[in-house]
Design a protein that fits this description.
The protein has 430 residues and is mostly helical. 52% of the residues lie in helices and 7% in strands. The relative contact order is 0.12. Bound molecules: carboxymethyl coenzyme *A.
Length: 430
């Protein structure tokens, strides 16, 4: 007989099924608990709630394991490319040569923006945050090809996915160029995904930017490392919005907004701001670490993770890449030295050790992007570009689930109990 859990409340016992995943992660299925007992479960912040069953990404936070569709992250980071990893995350298998070529062609065909979309950029002030622009433009994009908004057939879905992954790169580059007051540079069909992004960001009309293959590789690797991360804040948002049968673009645009926050994708920007702040104030690493420990409103950005309690495997790969890129570009960044020192001091401090706080993916990625010349406001946009395959794959999973229902958590209400309406004249205060 399948394993079951028993919950005893007072003199009543309830039997609850245990669900086991392919990596032997076990969960108590409480789906029928309220019907049986009137009880709901409470887990503020979802620290211990499985919100779905998914086949895309496996994480073991205790052991620092991350795999997309079964493939270890270090093997993908070493051997795959971003378009290939994107296909893997979305469709479940490494693509054949023909599948990858078709997907790449679809991305190339969809790389330019409709002229009408380009006009939208003029409506944003130069100070607008590129994450706000990205989210707005993804929603606007949907209007230009409504047939792709509810793609039920695989062929249409593949095109919708390729179009989204391809165009977010163009949107990112155009928003960067527009904010800088520079002419927009059109994509080049002969360049690969990541080289094309760098070309659109850094070429000028009479001065083409020739991306260094090692730089292209480092950014491509950053995208691979960000491609999915199971039920984080933004991905859960995409699934939540998608569960109402909202279209792919609307769901992903919501994911961009969730990612924007400094505790999520915004952390890479905050890491650099934290390091430059230290530099400008001339504050020592030791004094800053003390402040983090004393004042709960000051966080060591790029440290800590809800799931990883041993190490973040992405951080290790990025740290190695960071050393390589800076050496290749012949750059010495004092912020890298500060980051290394900060890591060293924090990892010896009982505050961080006891709370199992380690550098996460954002701790060193900003230093690589800075070395490439990507401005700090664009960092989270780079994270969003990388996370597209995960969001798209999760949206597809929600839509393909024959038992899918709209996501609708419950709550424990703790507000005022019923009271009578008080007319204005009877209310106290001004
Ligand atoms: N600096 C100082 N203290 C920290 C930090 C930090 N970066 N992270 C956690 N803590 C402390 C926290 O104050 C708490 O201490 P106490 O038990 O004394 O109250 C304890 O560690 C547990 O923290 P928590 O807030 O309950 O942890 P969480 O799982 O809710 O938050 C986190 C995870 C990533 C939001 C958090 O570690 C954090 O704010 N880190 C800095 C921001 C950051 O780097 N975010 C990027 C995450 S990786 C990319 C992504 O997936 O989005």
């Amino acid at each position: 007989m399948a394993e079951q859990a028993t919950l005893t409340v007072g003199d009543q016992s309830y039997t609850l099924p245990i669900v086991e995943g392919t990596e032997h992660e076990r969960a108590v299925d409480i789906g029928k608990l309220r019907g049986q007992s009137g009880l709901i479960t409470l887990d503020d912040g979802y620290g211990n709630t499985g919100s779905c069953v998914s086949e895309i990404t496996f994480i073991n936070g205790e052991e620092g394991i991350l795999r997309y569709r079964g493939y270890p992250i270090d093997e993908l980071a070493e051997q795959s490319t971003f378009p290939e990893t994107a296909w893997l995350c979305i469709f479940g298998e490494l693509p054949t040569r023909a599948q990858l070529s078709r997907f790449s062609d679809l991305m190339t065909q969809n790389q330019a923006l409709h002229q009408g979309l380009l006009h939208h950029f003029a409506g944003f002030p130069p100070s607008a945050h590129p994450m706000g622009i990205l989210s707005a433009m993804i929603n606007a994009m949907a209007a230009y090809q409504p047939v792709l908004m509810q793609p039920e057939q695989l062929d249409l879905f593949e095109e919708a996915a390729a179009r989204l992954i391809s165009k977010v790169r163009t949107i990112a580059a155009v928003s960067y160029k527009t904010a800088a007051g520079h002419p927009v540079i059109h994509p080049r069909p002969d360049l690969g995904y990541t080289a094309n992004l760098l070309h659109m960001m850094f070429s000028e009309p009479y001065a083409p930017y020739e991306p260094d293959p090692d730089v292209v590789r480092a950014l491509d690797q950053i995208f691979i490392l960000h491609a999915d991360h199971e039920q984080n804040c933004s991905t859960s948002t995409v699934r939540m919005v998608g569960s109402s049968q909202a279209n792919l673009y609307a769901s992903v645009a919501a994911g961009v907004c969730a990612l924007w926050g400094p505790l999520h994708g915004g952390a890479n920007q905050k890491v650099i701001q934290m390091l430059t702040g230290l530099q400008e104030r001339g504050e020592s690493i030791e004094s800053f670490v003390e402040r983090v420990k004393q004042d709960s409103s000051v966080r060591l950005m790029g440290f800590g993770h809800r799931v990883y309690k041993n190490h973040d495997p992405r951080a290790q790969i990025i740290k190695a890449s960071c050393d390589k890129v800076l050496a290749k570009l012949g750059q010495e960044d004092p912020l890298l030295d500060m980051a290394r020192r900060l890591e060293e001091v924090a990892l010896q401090d009982p505050y961080f050790v006891d709370r199992k706080l380690y550098p996460n993916v954002d701790f060193y990625s900003g230093i690589i992007m800075r070395a490439i010349g990507i401005p700090v406001e664009m960092f989270t946009v780079m994270f969003a570009i990388g996370r597209m395959p995960g969001w798209i794959g999760h949206w597809r999973e929600v839509h393909q689930n024959p038992k899918a229902r709209i996501y609708r958590p419950r709550q424990v209400y703790n507000g005022a109990t019923q009271r009578g309406y008080v007319p204005m004249a009877g209310r106290s205060g001004k």
